[in-house]
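Hello,

Our lab assistant flagged a job as stuck in the queue for most of the afternoon. It eventually completed. Since we weren't sure the result was trustworthy after the delay, we are filing this so someone can double-check. Below is the sequence as submitted and the structure that was eventually returned. Let us know if re-running is recommended.
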Amino acid sequence: MPDGTSKVGLPPGTPVHTGIERTEKVTIEIVEYNEGEMSEYDADSMQDCDPPHESVNVKWVHVNGVHDLEILRYLGETYDIHPLILEDIPSVGQRPKVEVLQNKVYLVLRFFDSIGEDRRVVSEQVSIILGNNVLLSFQESSQNIFEAIMNRLRRPTGRIRKDGPDYLGYALVDVVVDNYFRILEEVGERIEQLEDELIEGASADVLGRIYKLKRTVLALRRYIWPLREVIFALNRDDTELVAETTKVYLRDLYDHVIRVTDLAETYREGITGMLDIYLSSMSNKMNEVMKVLTVISTIFIPLTLMASIYGMNWPWMPELEFIYGYPVFLMAMLLITLVLVLYFRRRGWI
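-- returned structure --
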């Protein structure tokens, strides 16, 4: 979990990594392209990240890892990145937001993915800086989350090779949003599975699984909801870094974000309904148990009273002189039991 206390007392603009401790080496992938040519390579030195030559239409610098602050400082000096933006990149607890400056556009997103056989949902922060003929992107891990974009860049006939870095930035955000649909689809399947189990009979571990699923949906909702404002702000702000042709795609992306938001809200309400169903099911089971115990107690109350009176053994009790007193008493107890059972059955209590 992010540790915000490590930033207490530091001046604004001081980059501090607040995520989980990472020791792996930070790698940098670089893609340079125009409509006719494209080259991709891993940076051997920081100088490989310098601004592109005039022949390059777009230079994409993708940094895998935000815990190496020296790399961030070098990129900040090279591309004149505002110190407050450099502070936000390694601070991985940021909510989605956009900052439109004079010569930069800075976006913060949250990428979600499901891993393992149990499809455990994990997430990481993605930061994007859009500049003139250059796009910088940062992620916490080395997971190749933008492989689909790389494949599109390798095809010379695609639109992405013809447009500028603003369209590339849109494509990256579109990948993040499309992945929300995939994660929510898996969440929907798990919700249906849990609903079936609740109908058949809730087991002991269902409640824990429901709460775990609820936390996942709430996390998705917390990071999806502000994304609407981010996309809307990119369409609204008049910046030369985002072309009008790209804003058309951003408006379509805004519609996708609205759909994802509605889907997350629907699933949140569905999980809340499942909790109510589970609690009602448990309450009904408890009521059934209490009804059975109450019926048994009601049957044994008169029998206990009779046995208590009969057990006094006073000398003047007539039953002591009656040879059939004991079996008659047992027959009377059995008769009372049968009458009570028939009465409860006729009332529908058992």
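-- support follow-up --
The delay was a queue issue, not a problem with the job. The result is valid. The beta strands are 27-33, 38-42, 58-64, 97-100, 105-115, 120-131, 134-139. The chain has seven helices and seven strands.
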